[in-house]
Amino acid sequence: MDLRCRAKRFTNVVLPAVAFFACLGCSDAVKLIQETETGGVVTYIFKEERGGAMFSPFRSQAFDVMKQKCPSGYTIRKEGETRGSYSVSGVVEGTEDEIRHRRWAMQFRCKTG
């Protein structure tokens, strides 16, 4: 009986947790869309009705990407909404409900030593 309980706990708790953390890396919410030796361009999803680009929960993840690329620091050269940045997800068949995502881009350059 104890063995059955452990197996049930594994399938009910551990497997979903592993799947959740595995999918975190699959998200397209933050993307490094251009990378050079000296910097790049990172984009992230935002919604205007949730505070816009500056208050997007993905903004801090975009900064993390830049920090990882540039351990000595970085300078943001340009930022703004990307053209043609709408994507639609969550459309339920037979309804008019859809979720629109817009993307914000930040061009950055790594600081040298």
Please give a structural write-up.
With 113 residues, the chain is an alpha+beta fold. It has one domain (28-110). It is 30% helix and 34% strand. It is built from two helices and five strands, in the order H-E-E-H-E-E-E. The chain has helices at residues 2-24, 59-69; strands at 30-36, 39-46, 74-81, 87-89, 99-110. Strands 1, 2, 3, 4 and 5 form a five-stranded antiparallel sheet that branches. A hairpin with a 2-residue loop joins strand 1 (30-36) and strand 2 (39-46). The protein is globular.
The tally of strands reads 5
- Beta-strand content: 25-35%
The gyration radius over C-alpha positions equals 19 Å
Shape: globular
- Measured as a percent range, the helix fraction is 25-40%
**Termini distance?**
61 Å
Order of helices and strands: HEEHEEE
Counted by DSSP, the helix tally is 2
- Note poorly predicted spans: 13-25
In short:
The protein is of the alpha+beta class.
Furnish the topology, listing elements before pairings.
Elements: H1 2-24, E1 30-36, E2 39-46, H2 59-69, E3 74-81, E4 87-89, E5 99-110
Antiparallel strand pairs: 1-2, 2-5, 3-5, 4-5
List keywords for this structure.
113 residues; alpha+beta; 2 helices; 5 strands; 30% helix
